[in-house]
Structures are given as structure tokens and as C-alpha cells.
Design goal:
single chain, 291 residues, alpha+beta, Jelly Rolls, Arc Repressor Mutant, subunit A, 2 domains, 8 strands, 35% helix
Amino acid sequence: MRQRPRGDSRGILDPGRLLREVRFRRHLPAESLRPWVEHYWLIDWALSTPFEQRVVPHPAVNVVFRRDGDRDRNRDHDHDGHGDRDGPEFGEVAGVGRDLFRITLSGTGRVSGVQFRPGGFHPFWRRPVSELTGRRVPLPTGRLFQPDGPVCGGGPSGPPTSAASDDERCRALDALLTAWQPEPDPLAEEAVRLAEAIRTDRTVLRVDDFAARHDVPVRRLQRLFLEYVGVGPKWVIRRYRLQEAVEQAAGGPLSWADLAADLGYSDQAHLVRDFTAVAGVSPAAYARSVR
């Protein structure tokens, strides 16, 4: 079991600017939640000018709680321009996002987020996670819920964005998720393990090869991922390899032809097309922008 949160910036476009503009950090959840939860991510900001962050989403569900003044949320929410730092908290469940995610922050505010491990949200949701793919489902204020109704309030530590310290915010998230009463599920454990193998092994390029390596029939693998991860294994493989391309593009000059071959593309043009589709800019343009 991981003893510290991941330190990479995969999925974050221009991570250097993000760290200059806002306070961003990750923390591990309570040990009992780690089989399902990747990490908590906390953001606080006090901005004189609006800041847009773009993210290439992981194949993971997030539960997000936010409190801010301008209420300038993301493209899926209206802007009301009112309130203050102590405005009401709102929460949502964000399913796996297929498209580039953009969010504009302004004024002051804070976010307390939970990134589940791919496959790890099913024991909480208890329904096909594919129902959430591409969707953002509002949570009742200060409450978590099951498909058939709410199950808990803000918990002993209060709402996650109201606490003063990081430790208090993490304890509030621990309390909320524990009260959700996740149920042990061997299939969820299998999905988490297989998705982690795809993430960490860059030699995984084809579904049939991966299925054979783990002695899982391809059709069963596809059903398992749709039910527990929310997207198919081919999409997960391609998304993780594209995140690698984004990360490497920010690191310095490289051979795009060699990288395309390393990531399983038939040629450089296919990599450039997929990169541009998911990141919103060409690899060369992105590399110039972050340097």
C-alpha cells in the first residue's frame, strides 16, 4: 500500500503555472480507505486576475467540495458573481471525463477533492460506474448520498472546505467516505489492480496482449472495466499513454517519432492527432507554451 501520495503531474497541463497561481497539495486518506482512494487533493487560491487550468482527466471518479467567493466554477456551471470566501459549500461527483477539463478560478476560494482509484468508486456507488462517465452529479449540500438517498451529514469534522488546516480537511473527508459504508468487493479489487497495472507499465499497449498477460478473457475485461472503471480498457490504455506524452512534452526536446513508437502508435501523425484532440493544442505548441 502506498505510503505517500503520488508526486507526478500527469494530466495537469502546465503544472508549473498551476503551482505558481494556487496552493495545490495531495494527502493520503485514512488507511482503511486506501484500497479505493488514490489521494485527497486540496487547492486554495487568492487571485487578482482569473486563472484557467486545463486537465487531461484520469480514468477515475472524483468527489469534489468547493467554497469560493466569485462562484466562477467551470464550464458546466453558471457564474453568479456573488458571495464571499465564506459562501456556501457545494459538492459533486465527477465521473470519468472523456474530454479536456477546463476550470477558471478567480477571487478567493478552496477545493477539497477526492480522487478515487480507477475501479475504486464502485463500492461506494454500487451501480455501474459507466452511468457517471462524462457527467457531474451535484451532491446535496453538506451530504453524501447513495443512489437511493442520503446516508450522512457533514460528519464530526464539519464540511470539508470549512476546516482550517489540511489535517482537519482530510479528517472531514475520511469521516464522509467512511460514513458512506463502502462494501468489500473482490471484483472492485481486481479492477483496481488491473487499472494500476496499465498505469504503471508503459509496455501495455494492446487490450488483447494485456488480457492474455493477466489470464483474463477480453470480453470479461471489457465488462469489468465498464462496470467498475466507467470506460473500456482500450480507452484506459490510450489515456495513460497520452498522459505520458503530455508529461514528456513538458520535460524538454524529444523525438516525437520515437515517442509514438514507444507508446504503441503506428506513426507520429496518429500520436499528434490524439494528443491535439485530448490536450486542445498540438504537441509542439504545448511544448513551446510550457517552456
